[in-house]
Amino acid sequence: MVKEGVPISVYDFSAMTILGELKSLGEYEGNVLLIVNTASECGFTPQLDGLQKLYDQYKDQGFKVLGFPCNQFHSQDPGTDAEISNFCQRHYGVTFPMFSKIDVKGENAHPLFVHLTNQATGMVTKQIKWNFTKFLVGKDGEVIGRFAPQTKPESITSEIENALSK
């Protein structure tokens, strides 16, 4: 639902998929989402495996992982969308939805990430400071948690299960 043209939940945003198709996040309405800014050449890149395992474990219960590649942190995702997609599938078996590479901070930040960081600020700043920052979104489209890059995906299963039970 949009009030006076201003998005009020993640479902009000759209983003380009990694395959070049514009997708409304409204298509995920009613699901629990874990939205993550990813990178292919980061020390946290192995978290793609944990994200895929979460997706596999909970997808039939209404859970989706949404990956958004970003090259803003030490140029750790320099490839094209096709290269990123191939890398994620080949090395980590990623089947969860991936989106086109975006900025997650600064003046060119994707509006979704502006919204996410306004809804759930970090420890020191609301701005995303590194790859693999994770936002847990409830079925209602509201942000219910933000997790640091160091937080391993498997360590937030209880939060995911709690959100799925609501």
TrEMBL record:
InterPro entries: Glutathione_peroxidase (IPR000889), GPX_AS (IPR029759), GPX_CS (IPR029760), Thioredoxin-like_sf (IPR036249). Keywords: Oxidoreductase, Peroxidase. GO terms for molecular function: peroxidase activity. Signal peptide: none annotated. It comes from the Bacteria. Gene3D superfamilies: Glutaredoxin (3.40.30.10). Belongs to the glutathione peroxidase family. This is Glutathione peroxidase. It comes from Virgibacillus siamensis. The lineage of its organism: Bacteria, Bacillati, Bacillota, Bacilli, Bacillales.
